[in-house]
Specification:
The protein is of the alpha+beta class. It has 5 helices and 9 strands, in the order H-E-H-E-H-E-E-E-H-E-H-E-E-E. It starts with a helix and ends with a strand.
Length: 196
């Protein structure tokens, strides 16, 4: 495995990037944290702290230095787009290693696609600008490589890992995200949330 942070397109700055996240419910968060323990002690592959586990619905092109009025308009637009979609589940699989991360993915669904499209439409209609690409599928990253990592060791640790199972998506959160490449983590401050 190679460093995720060398691969990740650089942000204008490491703090304040606006994202919309879905957060795992308590059962799913506990399962994700439990499975991530398999990665303990692997050099160059720090685990994401449990409170920061998330599913990215969309990264936006703006940062949190927008005016209060602009942030309010964005939150209201998110509400208009996603309220009424209704809660749904995504089925996260077992942890798997990629080229830069270890994570759990779920098959996409019409509900997930509608959520992603609605969030991106709200951002584009309210703030303009070109949005970064959407996520490839519903997923949660358990660990981001911060350097070269022994892929064979990671694979051996993941033998027998179990599926996470259903994750209820019933709310989205507009967050201001800080990336910490030296720690291999993303953390955030919540600015607003909207029920589906």
């Amino acid at each position: 495995m190679r460093s995720f942070f060398d691969y990740m397109p650089p942000w204008v700055r490491n703090e304040g990037s606006l994202h919309v996240y879905a957060l795992p419910d308590d059962r799913a968060r506990d399962r994700l944290a439990e499975e991530s323990l398999r990665l303990d002690g692997i050099v160059g592959l720090p685990r994401m702290p449990e409170p920061w586990l998330h599913l990215t619905v969309s990264r936006l092109s703006q940062f949190d230095d927008l005016s209060h009025a602009e942030l309010t308009r964005l939150a209201e637009a998110l509400g208009r787009e996603v309220e009424g979609l209704g809660a749904f589940d995504v089925a996260l699989g077992a942890p798997a290693a990629g080229a830069h991360t270890v994570g759990c993915s779920a098959p996409s669904s019409p509900q997930w696609e509608a959520l992603v499209s609605g969030v991106r439409r709200a951002a584009s209609d309210t703030l303009g600008g070109e949005l970064p690409p959407p996520p490839y599928a519903p997923h949660t990253s358990l660990a981001y490589a911060i350097g070269d990592v022994d892929g064979a060791l990671v694979a051996s640790r993941l033998v027998g890992a179990a599926e996470i199972g259903p994750v209820r998506i019933d709310r989205v959160h507009l967050v201001s995200v800080t990336v910490r490449p030296e720690l291999g983590t993303f953390d955030w401050i919540e600015l607003a949330n909207v029920d589906l």
